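Follow-up to my post from last week.
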Amino acid sequence: MNFSLLMILLTPIFGGLLAYAGSALHKAVRNIFFLIFLILPFFELYQYANKTIDNFYYLTVLGQSLSLGINALSFMLSLLFSLIFLLAYIFLLFEFDKSEDSDLAILEFSFLEGAVFGVLFARDILSFFIFFEIIALIIFFLIGKGYEESHNAQLKYITWALIGANSMLAAVVFLFFKAGSFGYAEISGYLSTAPTPIVLITFVLFVIGFLIEASIMPLHVWAPITYAEAPDSVSVLLSSVVKKVGLYLFTIFVFSIFGLNLFSKIMPRVFEAPLIMYVLQWIGALTIIIGTFVAIVQEDAKKILAWSSIAQSGYILLGLSLGTPLGVAGGLLHIVNHSIFKGILFFVVGGVIYRTGTKNLSELGGLIKKMPISFISMLLAIIATAGIPPLNGFVSKYLIYEALIQNKEPLLLTIALLGGTGSFMYVYRLIHSIFLGQLPKKYEGVKEVPILMQVPMLVLSLLALLFGVLPGIPMYFVSKAEAFLGFDPIKYTLTGFPEQPGLHALNVPIISAALMGGFVVAALIFYLLPKTRSVHQLDNYYAGEILTEDVKYNYSFGFYSFFDDIIKPFNEWSIDRIYENFVGFVKTVGDYIRRIYTGNLETYVSLGIIILTIFSLIYIIGGVLW
Amino acid sequence: MELQETLEEGYVEILDHLRKRSLWMLHYCTACGAVELPPTITSRFDAERFGIAPFVTSRQSDILLVTGYINIKTLKRLVTVYEQMLPPKYVIGFGSCTINGGIYWDSYAVVKRLDLYLPVDVYIAGCMPTPMAVLEGFRTLMKLIDEGKANGWRKYIENYDYYKANQRKVLKW
Amino acid sequence: MVEKLVLILTPIFAFFVGIFLEGFKRKMVARIHRRYGPPLHQPLLDIIKLLSKKENISHGVMFDLGPVIFVGASILTVLFLPLPHFKQLTPYGDLIAFLYIMVIGSLGMALGAGESGNPNASIGIARALTLMLGYELPLIIAGNTLVVRYGTTDLYKFMTLQSGFNWNLFLLPLTAIAGFIATYGAMGEHPFDTVVAPQEVATGPMVEYGGKHLGLLMIGHAIQVYIETAFFTILFLGGASNIFTFILKQLGVIIVMTLFDTVFPRFRIENAVRYFWRWPTLIALLGLLIVYIGGK
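User reply:
Got it. Predicted complex:
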């Protein structure tokens, strides 16, 4: 069968509408309907593997035909996003099982998936803009179904989304009037001969829009509260899909539409990259380090994940803006890997909230005995987040580091590596405060999450392990995407990377095998020796004191308080505060201006006369002078 | 069968022989006796040459060194600490207080005989025992371990009811 | 064939070298205190004693697995360090991969200690991770300096490039000093022993570990001593042309470390991190600057 791209785009939307109609019959009908329509895109996408389509016209606006297309990069991402949508949907069913919003949430969910496909397939700046704004709008609705503070989050999100939208809209309109066309190819052709200021202004306007969605540093203010307050399944989508859509557009615009050659032509090169890319590298690096350090001192499980997500997108931006085959491969691979492991973390934390009803880390603890499967999933995910072999986060970060070495940028490399160590701190705090330590009495009846809810975490955990041990699998797609972007794809094998310029050979299966070998030796020593006797958690060393249930004997609040002391001097420079000051300034100015509008007719008349006089004076004097 | 037993015995003997060279002590400093320990472990007398070193928690230690009188409140903690230690474990009663109450022989709040409540392997008499006496006590314990006679922890398990009953009498658990 | 045999025997070799270095250290500390000191094989006796405990306690599966992962990962890390004439597993992973492989053991131990449910253990781990953030900064910069200078990340090449007396200690003294302080911090010696700090947090992560768990941790620790000293030897002391020189150089590192270890008191954790981010980092940056400006 032949499926057109438009059909793929509309499939989830049809499914959502059908499911919404089906919900009148029974919940099960709705669920199954929608599940089918979420699985369908995989089959439909199958025929587009290894295909590049550039102009599938579907609509004509302003005399211009809008087109869809697919290439290696958008194929890879649409496959990944379909999977995450499917898993997030399964999770959403449980999360909203007691809520009355579930029908509406599913409908919005379906439109979101359609819009995401739309952005991925768009081949002109108008359709990408429209689909992008649909995403923002639906996310705005979905956030509102979350926790107590979600309405504040909604406001913050929509404000920033609008800033991004206006900035992109300006660029879109400007380019349309200059180039006379919406198509990516025509725009690219126009830009290659355009004057330097136009290129720079439109580029900055577009990038502001993308980087707001990707929550890169000075534009991240909406992200922590939104990620923390949105429903858990929506947080997964925000971090694993919407953020990556922003980064996908960034990739496409930088490498395919504007192009590195254009930048090298109009600006000096610093460290083997055009100046603007070098600036972006530093923005990425600052995002890594600040995001990591702020994540370390958070007290809320989802806020840790939010800041961690910000920091990880810094890695992606850093890798992509290096503009070398290695760096771009690392950035693209990290897009895939980060979607996977951050998805697991949000799913597990969501499951814990589903069972215990709190996301406050100081109230949790000791759940490992109650929720072992969630624990294992989270363990794999935190190993990946910290970038430790043999999980998938290692390979992509490794590529980014090696790319930095190849470009001879020791300072950026230092920051990136330090961010890796810092991520070790916050992931440990997360797993410790939730699963380790002492189990509070009130959670003694907590059970593991339902089996269907375990499916999303387990599927992604297996993927994380598979992509970690055999990095050749994701590299197959990544190298094709790289070839599409116009780079020489880096060499890879199923097990890692062979020796090549700028990259030391890496073989992850051998690392894993050696690890397993060491593990077996140690386990033999351990399990051949006398058996262990399990003791109660309160039979614990306390200098001889006898512990009782009613005294809390757990270290979970202010876990890194001493680290907080170290970075306290820098808290003064918070970016949030800069924006707040700006808001305060606008309010004050507005207050003064409002005093002119007294509601009295005489004031308005006299104001009119004054302004009229001023303009006439200018006119007269101007006429005399010129 | 016999061969296996001989082997096992030999194995235990070798282990005991090695084990006596590494004794970590938990000095439960209840009273004035603690003041004699710093000279014992520092340069003048150097207990570390026998492999004896002070350690911190009950899980890690082999010797419970009860340095001085035990009052009823302390006994509760002492029993908890002893039960948290991993066998083989040894108790050393340090000073006359642990033998018969010492100068607190007529106090209402002090437990006079330690071995009613915990199985004591070695007593070091004196008020205070000097570092030389302490080292002599350690050497005696090492000899007992080598000979397989330091079986206090086994005694505690075998006569658990007896010890528990004695503890209950004072502690009113 | 010989290479594979060496590969398999390396962990055992590393363990015994580590035991020797530890025993030597204890003896040396005793001599500085003007004591006689324990016998050289005392660490081995301690391990045998701990492993032969009649009964062990456990707080859960992760608590048991913590020491196992620690030892397993230490064995893995040893395999990625080159020996004189033997590349070991270095063709499959470089300096960057090595930095991350080194962390696996600490992760295992941190998870195990966390499950003990003792706040002292958690505080110890929190301190350990914060300290790690402290000493990693100078260590990373020092490593970067070497990478910039030699244009490679291969550990075996680092070793061969310094053959003769072209030690980095002589060629890049500033970097070597920063690297030494960072390695010293990684070993957790005074004044950076805030992690175990017996008087404050009752040996921190090890607080609930006893018996065979602690025995395994001590085996792992012996291997870690080998790893840290060998790492420093390879990066800054020019590796070695044969195994005895290699051990001798490690012994030299341990002797210098012990000289500092015996005389220092303990930093508070904030001050330790501030220290690492101030002096060693400045020294390392200066070294980096010199290499960067001076070129190859």
